[in-house]
């Protein structure tokens, strides 16, 4: 889209808005306040900003969860606001902050002008679905809020308010010529498209330009992708900040009857694979860095899951902070050994090979008496995985490295993993990534630089815990499995509804049973990056002990 300025009357008022698409640390109110002050100074120095708009709850970070219940919250917030008032900031600031009023806590936006708080808005629709549970903490605001910036009436809303009928319409009816919307909207694979459809409709129907400012960065399992946007009063997208990139993004408006943003070139939309990959990199980088880990370590098997995990880790942290460990056993193929070494060399990480054979023999010698008269089964297979887990956790303890696990969403769903074995660790990079998408991510990463051998992508997946073992000996093909899991886990289809979609009854009933009986495993699994609309974590909370029968 052209960046040239349209013709406007000389009487049009200019307004420079800076979207502060920044990454904040939950709970670090002093550090977040420093970041707001630095951003405000930079917005004035570099962009001559009239107003700087920050994300939702930027002073506490999002989501602060039960930190909002701490007795000192109000004191810490007040100290932060006093610091901002005394910081000599030139632009008007719109800041997200929790505020108490009349004994109730609100998710608020505060207007700060030259050291004075001139207004505050209380979010009217605290969400309480998917990963959100704001009604646990926040009361509902009641009022529409407008402020005046350089003589221009500006409405303010917070995140969920724009998804509901009422707040935008009320601001427009009250005479706002521009709407500022503060957000902490987490990423999923279709989220930016849904946001755009919403903003297009809301701006067009209400004949008002909308500035949508979103948080960026990782917070536990959530990743916030930024993608801040500006739509004009006709419903046209005029400005879009890149996703997953922290920075200040200035927008100039020419305001007369409407506030018209001056168009800027729009970024190329991210492909599904590029978006997911950047979300994984962002989630790993922020989880490791914000929690103070010096490095990460992972088991490199020669399979596709660990290959993609290794690539993400290196892209997030740099090769110097990543250690890969191959832990072969008698069932490990020469192909796996060769491919694991090739991956490690291609990415330049520290690479070690430690055989688990001696440890396995020692365990089996100890267990010979109690196991006498039994036949080998999954017990012996799981022992291999648990020995690998012990090795990785020992390296973690000794060197302060975070263990990255490598299980994907398909495996987590059906329990195709070993508790205290390959599930042992601190962060599961692929936890919400279906196996079929893992293959696509591998191919995508190889378009950036070739780091995953082709046969890792094309060979049949195997845990290599038994001779000739393949994943599909125990599971339906991943093409079928992932479709069933999507319908059952993410869309809540019943067994009969899934069968009606054309899937074999035996496959559906088997998969659903595996999902249901493995809830206890998932409760003990590490957290991981959420990239779908419904991941295993805050999104999906099922009781471990229950008598619900699948069917209708």
Automatic annotation (TrEMBL):
Example of a GO cellular component annotation carried by this entry: cytoplasm
GO terms under biological process: NAD+ biosynthetic process
Record keywords: ATP-binding, Ligase, NAD, Nucleotide-binding
Pfam families on file: CN_hydrolase (PF00795), NAD_synthase (PF02540)
Catalytic residues identified in the record: 56 (proton acceptor), 123 (for glutaminase activity), 159 (nucleophile)
EC number: 6.3.5.1
InterPro entries attached to this UniProt entry: C-N_Hydrolase (IPR003010), C-N_Hydrolase_sf (IPR036526), Gln-dep_NAD_synthase (IPR014445), NAD/GMP_synthase (IPR022310), NAD_synthase (IPR003694), Rossmann-like_a/b/a_fold (IPR014729)
Biochemical pathway: Cofactor biosynthesis; NAD(+) biosynthesis; NAD(+) from deamido-NAD(+) (L-Gln route): step 1/1
Domain CN hydrolase: from-to ranges: 15-255
Family: Belongs to the NAD synthetase family.
Protein name from the UniProt record: Glutamine-dependent NAD(+) synthetase
Source organism (scientific name): Marinobacter lutaoensis
